[in-house]
C-alpha cells in the first residue's frame, strides 16, 4: 500500500480566514507551549513546525542595533518635515530593509517597535528626539504615515508589524519607572490618548508598548485604559508588548504588587501579551505565569487571549504562508533610492528660524569659516543603525563651495594633562591590523570600539595633546589627535578606543573636579577617578591622580582666527545624542552649553556676519538679537551634512517647520512632572507667554501669499478652502497650516489648535488651491460633566497661516452643537477626578484594577472646583468615599464651609474606602468647592435629598 500524505492542518491552509486558522493552531498547542509564547523570545514548537518568534525590532528612523542600515533623520526631524507622503516613503524603505536584513540574519525581527508617539510636551525630556511633535494632530498624522509605510500596501500580508511607543503620558526620564503622571480626564482624552487613537484608527498599527511610568498612580503595564480605550478603537487584534524589564519593576522598584505572580497576572489580565524581561531567557516569566495559574490568579483562557493576539500578528506577517507572502523576497537594501530618500528627508527637515538681510543663501563665491563642535560630525543616537554612508556639514560645504574657500576650526580646547610627577598623559600608537586603517594608513576609529587589546594610556615627558570637548554640566570628552575618544573598558583601563561616545552606559565621558592645586579626573560611567599605575592609566577606587590642565590652545582663539578672515561665519552647535539628554537622562536647561556659547560669542565678535546652525535633538534657547541667521535641524542621519550644505547654498529652499514650541527661557517651562497642559498652560495650545520661536514656525527663501479663504458648514463637517501663491523668485515648499479656536468657550480651550496642514511645492508665481474637510469632531472637547466628547454650540474662528502665530487669513463659522447642562448631582454625584480646576492635588488610583481618586500632594492641602452643579429642588446630605486620614471640607460658590467630614481614624490602607456623611442644605445650581487636608484619597462625592 502507498502511504497517504497527512492532511494539511487548517492553520496551514491559506484559503481559510485568519481567525479560523488561529483557532486551529491555538487548539493544537499545549498549555506549557502557550505559556512559553508569553516571553519576548517565544520558542519554536518543532512538532507543529512552528518557528521561534521574537517581538521587538527597533526601527525608529531606520533599522537599529542590527548593524549597517540606511539611517534617516531622527523622529523629531521627520516631524519637522510636516510631510506625510515623505514619512510614509521613509517607513516603506525602512520596512523593506527590515525584510532584506532578515533574509540574511534571522535575529532581525518583523515586529518593529516604532514609531514613538509620545507628545513632546516638555522640551527638557531626554528622549525628545524620539517623538514627532508637541501637537497630537501633527503627531498622529506623521505616525500614521510612518506606520503605513512600515505595514506595506499588500491587502493581506504586512511587511512589518509596527508597535506604537510608549503608552501613556510618558515624557520624563527622571524617576521614569516610579514617577506618576497625573492626567485629568480632559488632558487624557483631548491630548495624550489622541495621538494613539488617531494612529490606531488609521489601520496600520499592530500594537502598543506600555511605558515605564505610572499614570494616575497606576503602572502603565496594568492600565485599564488598554481594554477600556485601546482595544475599542479597532477590530484588529492589537499586540501589547511590555517595555524591557517593566514587568519586574511592578514589584522590584514600584512595589505595586507583593509578588511577581500577582504582577504578571495583573499585567496579562490588563492586556499585556508579550513580556520583555530577563533578556533572551524566558524561564523566569514562564515560572511566574505558571505560578499565577497554580494560585488561581489566571486561567488558561487568559493565556489563550494573549497568545491569540500574538498569533494574529504572526499570521498577518505571512509567517505561515511563505508562498503567498509577497514581502518574503524583498531585497531592497541601501539602494540608490533609499540613499536619495535619506537626503530628501534630511533636506526637508531643515528649519530656517531667522534670516535678516537675506544673509542666506550664501553666494557661491563666499569665503566661509565653519566652526563648532558639530561642524565635522555626523552624530547617531541610541536608536540609530550603523552608518553605511555619512556626511558632515563641513564635508557638504567643501563640496558646495570648494575646500579652498572654506576654513574650519572645531573650537575645542587643546590640552595636555600633567601628573603630580611632572609627566603627561600619553596616548600610545595603536598596534592594529591593516583592516582598521584607511587608504592613507590612518586609523578608522569606528573599527576600534570596544577593543581591550589596544594599549592603555601611559605617561611620558611630552604627553599627547588631547581635544577637550565640554558638553555642558561639567561633562567632557577627551579625544586623541587621530580621532579616537578616551574610553574605559570592563578591565578599568583608559584607552583611546571609541569612535564616538555611545552605549547604554557611556564610557567616554569624564568630569574635572577641582582638588588642591589641580583636578581629579572622574570617569562618569564607572564613578571612579583616573589613576596612574605602572601598567597603565586606569580608573580605581583609590589612588586618584591630581592633574594639572595645561591648555595649548583655547577653542575661542581658533574660532576668532578663522572668523576674522571670512566673509561669513557658520557656527554649527548642538548636542551629542548620548550626552546630557537621552534615554534615562533628562536635560536640566534649555541653554546651550557654556563652551558653545563662548564659541558663538567669539565668532560674532570677530565677524558680525555669523549664522548659527543648531544640530540637535531638542530645542535650545539662544539670544537671536545679534545673529542675522539661525537654522535648526535634528540629527539628520547619513545625509545630514549634505542636506544642510545644500540648504545653505540655496540648492534647496528650507521648508521645515518647528514641531514644538521653542521657549525663550527656562522660567517659561512647567515642572517636568506637571502633565496638566490645560491647568499649566503648556505647549502652543495654551502657552500665553512670548516664545522664542512658535510652533509651526519656519522661513523660506521664497515668499507666499494667502488668499480666497472660504468656509461652509456641512451636515457633519466644515469645508475650508483657500489659495497659496509663491510670490518669490525660487521654487520652494510652503507648509500651509489651518487652526481653529472656540470664540467664547465655556471652559478653558486652546488658544489655537492645529486641525489640518499641507506641504506644497510651488514654482515662482504658481498658485495652489487647498481644500480641507474638517469633521465636526475636530471642534469637540471632553466634557467632564457628561464623561464624553461634546460639540459646544457657538462661533469658531478658522485661522490660516504659515505658523501658529503667523496668521494670514481668518474667518468664523457658527456650529450647532449640544448646549451645556448642569451636573445632575442627585443622579450621579461627583467623581473626584472630574474637576474643572484644582490646585495642590494629584490624581491617584482608586483601586489597583481601575478607577481614580484625588489626594493632596505629599499630604498637604488640595482645592477642587466643580462648576455648574445642579442640586435640584434641594439636598439634605452629602457623602464622601475616602481612604487614608484627613478632612474633606465642602463649600458653594466660594462661600463658607457647609460641611466638614473628617476620618475619625486612619483607614487600614490606601484602598480601604469608607463613606462619611454630613447634613447640608442646598438647592439650585452652584459651583462646588472641596478642600482636602491630609494624606487622604477622595474617590466620590454623593448627594441625597
UniProtKB/TrEMBL annotation:
Keyword Signal, does the record have it? Answer: yes
Which protein, by its recorded name, is this? Glycoside hydrolase family 3 C-terminal domain-containing protein
Q: Which Pfam families match?
A: CBM_6 (PF03422), Fn3-like (PF14310), Glyco_hydro_3 (PF00933), Glyco_hydro_3_C (PF01915)
Q: What are the CBM6 domain coordinates in residue numbering?
A: 828-944
Q: Which residues form a coiled coil?
A: none
The answer to whether UniProt assigns keyword Signal to this entry is: yes
Q: Origin, by domain of life?
A: Bacteria
The GO molecular function terms of this record are:
hydrolase activity
Query: Member of which family?
Result: Belongs to the glycosyl hydrolase 3 family.
Organism lineage reads as: Bacteria, Bacillati, Actinomycetota, Actinomycetes, Kitasatosporales
Q: Which SMART domains match?
A: CBD_IV, Fn3_like
CDD domains documented for this protein = beta-trefoil_FSCN_BglX-like, CBM6_xylanase-like
> Mind listing the UniProt keywords for this protein, alphabetically?
Hydrolase, Signal
Amino acid at each position: 500500500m502507498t502511504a497517504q500524505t497527512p492532511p494539511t492542518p487548517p492553520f496551514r491552509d491559506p484559503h481559510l480566514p485568519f481567525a479560523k486558522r488561529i483557532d486551529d493552531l491555538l487548539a493544537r498547542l499545549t498549555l506549557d507551549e502557550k505559556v512559553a509564547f508569553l516571553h519576548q523570545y517565544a520558542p519554536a514548537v518543532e512538532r507543529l513546525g512552528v518557528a521561534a518568534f521574537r517581538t521587538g525590532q527597533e526601527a525608529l528612523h531606520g533599522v537599529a542595533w542590527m548593524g549597517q542600515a540606511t539611517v534617516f533623520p531622527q523622529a523629531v526631524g521627520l516631524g519637522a518635515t510636516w510631510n506625510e507622503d515623505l514619512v510614509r516613503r521613509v517607513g516603506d524603505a525602512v520596512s523593506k530593509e527590515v525584510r532584506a536584513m532578515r533574509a540574511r540574519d534571522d535575529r532581525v525581527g518583523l515586529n518593529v517597535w516604532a514609531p514613538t508617539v509620545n507628545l513632546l510636551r516638555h522640551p527638557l525630556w531626554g528622549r525628545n528626539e524620539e517623538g514627532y511633535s508637541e501637537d497630537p494632530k501633527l503627531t498622529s498624522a506623521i505616525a500614521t504615515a510612518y506606520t503605513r509605510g512600515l505595514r506595506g500596501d499588500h491587502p493581506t500580508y504586512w511587511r512589518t508589524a509596527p508597535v506604537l511607543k510608549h503608552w501613556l503620558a510618558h515624557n520624563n526620564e527622571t524617576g521614569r519607572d516610579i514617577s506618576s503622571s497625573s492626567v485629568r480626564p480632559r488632558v487624557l482624552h483631548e491630548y495624550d490618548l489622541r495621538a494613539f487613537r488617531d494612529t490606531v484608527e488609521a489601520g496600520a498599527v499592530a500594537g502598543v508598548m506600555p511605558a515605564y511610568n505610572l499614570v494616575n498612580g497606576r503602572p502603565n503595564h496594568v492600565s485599564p485604559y488598554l481594554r477600556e480605550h485601546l482595544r475599542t478603537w479597532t477590530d484588529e487584534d492589537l499586540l501589547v508588548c511590555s517595555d524591557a524589564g517593566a514587568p519586574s519593576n511592578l514589584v522590584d522598584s514600584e512595589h505595586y504588587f507583593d509578588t511577581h505572580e500577582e504582577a504578571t497576572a495583573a499585567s496579562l489580565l490588563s492586556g499585556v501579551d508579550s513580556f520583555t524581561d530577563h533578556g533572551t531567557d524566558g524561564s523566569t516569566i514562564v515560572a511566574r505565569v505558571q505560578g499565577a495559574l497554580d494560585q488561581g490568579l489566571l486561567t488558561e483562557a487568559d493565556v489563550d487571549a494573549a497568545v491569540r493576539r500574538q498569533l494574529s500578528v504572526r499570521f498577518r506577517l505571512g509567517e505561515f504562508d511563505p508562498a503567498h507572502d509577497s514581502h518574503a523576497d524583498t531585497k531592497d537594501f541601501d539602494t540608490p533610492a533609499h540613499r536619495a530618500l535619506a537626503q530628501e528627508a534630511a533636506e526637508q527637515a531643515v528649519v530656517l528660524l531667522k534670516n535678516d538681510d537675506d544673509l542666506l543663501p550664501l553666494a557661491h563665491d563666499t569665503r566661509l569659516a565653519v566652526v563648532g563642535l558639530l561642524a565635522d560630525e555626523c552624530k547617531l543616537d541610541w536608536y540609530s543603525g550603523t552608518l553605511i554612508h555619512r556626511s558632515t556639514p563641513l564635508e557638504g560645504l567643501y563640496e558646495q563651495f570648494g575646500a579652498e574657500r572654506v576654513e574650519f576650526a572645531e573650537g575645542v580646547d587643546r590640552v595636555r594633562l600633567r601628573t603630580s610627577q611632572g609627566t603627561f598623559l600619553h596616548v600610545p600608537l595603536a598596534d592594529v591590523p591593516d583592516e582598521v586603517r584607511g587608504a592613507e594608513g590612518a586609523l578608522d576609529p569606528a573599527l576600534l570600539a570596544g577593543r581591550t587589546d589596544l594599549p592603555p594610556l601611559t605617561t611620558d615627558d611630552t604627553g599627547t595633546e588631547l581635544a577637550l570637548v565640554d558638553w555642558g554640566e561639567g561633562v567632557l570628552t577627551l579625544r586623541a589627535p587621530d580621532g579616537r575618544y578616551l574610553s574605559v573598558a570592563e578591565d578599568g583601563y583608559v584607552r583611546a578606543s571609541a569612535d564616538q561616545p555611545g552605549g547604554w552606559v557611556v564610557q567616554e565621558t569624564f568630569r574635572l573636579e577641582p582638588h588642591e592645586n589641580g583636578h581629579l579626573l572622574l570617569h562618569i560611567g564607572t564613578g571612579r577617578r583616573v589613576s596612574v599605575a605602572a601598567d597603565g592609566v586606569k580608573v580605581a577606587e583609590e589612588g586618584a591622580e591630581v592633574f594639572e590642565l595645561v591648555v595649548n590652545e583655547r577653542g575661542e582663539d581658533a574660532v576668532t582666527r578663522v572668523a576674522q578672515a571670512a566673509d561669513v561665519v557658520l557656527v554649527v552647535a548642538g548636542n551629542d545624542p548620548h550626552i546630557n539628554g537621552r534615554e534615562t537622562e533628562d536635560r536640566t536647561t534649555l541653554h546651550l552649553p557654556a563652551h558653545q556659547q563662548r564659541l558663538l560669542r567669539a565668532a560674532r565678535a570677530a565677524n558680525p556676519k555669523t549664522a548659527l546652525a543648531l544640530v540637535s535633538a531638542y530645542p535650545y534657547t539662544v539670544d537671536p538679537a545679534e545673529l542675522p541667521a539661525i537654522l535648526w535641524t535634528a540629527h539628520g542621519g547619513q545625509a545630514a551634512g549634505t542636506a544642510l550644505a545644500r540648504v545653505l547654498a540655496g540648492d534647496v529652499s528650507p521648508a521645515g517647520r518647528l514641531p514644538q514650541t521653542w521657549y525663550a527661557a527656562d522660567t517659561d517651562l512647567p515642572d517636568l512632572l506637571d502633565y496638566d497642559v490645560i491647568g499649566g498652560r503648556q505647549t502652543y495650545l495654551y502657552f500665553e507667554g512670548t516664545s522664542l520661536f512658535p510652533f509651526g514656525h519656519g522661513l523660506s527663501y521664497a515668499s507666499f501669499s494667502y488668499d480666497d479663504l472660504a468656509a461652509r458648514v456641512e451636515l457633519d463637517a466644515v469645508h475650508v478652502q483657500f489659495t497659496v501663491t509663491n510670490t518669490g523668485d525660487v521654487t520652494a515648499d510652503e507648509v500651509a497650516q489651518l487652526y481653529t479656536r472656540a470664540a467664547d468657550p465655556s471652559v478653558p480651550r486652546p488658544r489655537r489648535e492645529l486641525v489640518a496642514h499641507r506641504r506644497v511645492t510651488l514654482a515662482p508665481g504658481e498658485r495652489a488651491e487647498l481644500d480641507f474637510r474638517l469633521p465636526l469632531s475636530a471642534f469637540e472637547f471632553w466634557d467632564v460633566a457628561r464623561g464624553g466628547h461634546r460639540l459646544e454650540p457657538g462661533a469658531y474662528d478658522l485661522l490660516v497661516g504659515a505658523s501658529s502665530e503667523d496668521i494670514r487669513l481668518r474667518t468664523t463659522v457658527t456650529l450647532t452643537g449640544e448646549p451645556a447642562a448642569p451636573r445632575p448631582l442627585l443622579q450621579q454625584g461627583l467623581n473626584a477626578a472630574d474637576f474643572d480646576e484644582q490646585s495642590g492635588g494629584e490624581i491617584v488610583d482608586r483601586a489597583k484594577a481601575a478607577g481614580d481618586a484625588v489626594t493632596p500632594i505629599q499630604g498637604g492641602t488640595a482645592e477642587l472646583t466643580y462648576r455648574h452643579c445642579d442640586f435640584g429642588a434641594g439636598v439634605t446630605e452629602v457623602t464622601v468615599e475616602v481612604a487614608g486620614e484627613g478632612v474633606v471640607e465642602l463649600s458653594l460658590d466660594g462661600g463658607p464651609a457647609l460641611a466638614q467630614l473628617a476620618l475619625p481614624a486612619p483607614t487600614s490602607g490606601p484602598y480601604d474606602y469608607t463613606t462619611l456623611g454630613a447634613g447640608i442644605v442646598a438647592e439650585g445650581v452652584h459651583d462646588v468647592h472641596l478642600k482636602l487636608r491630609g494624606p487622604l484619597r477622595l474617590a466620590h462625592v454623593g448627594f441625597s435629598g
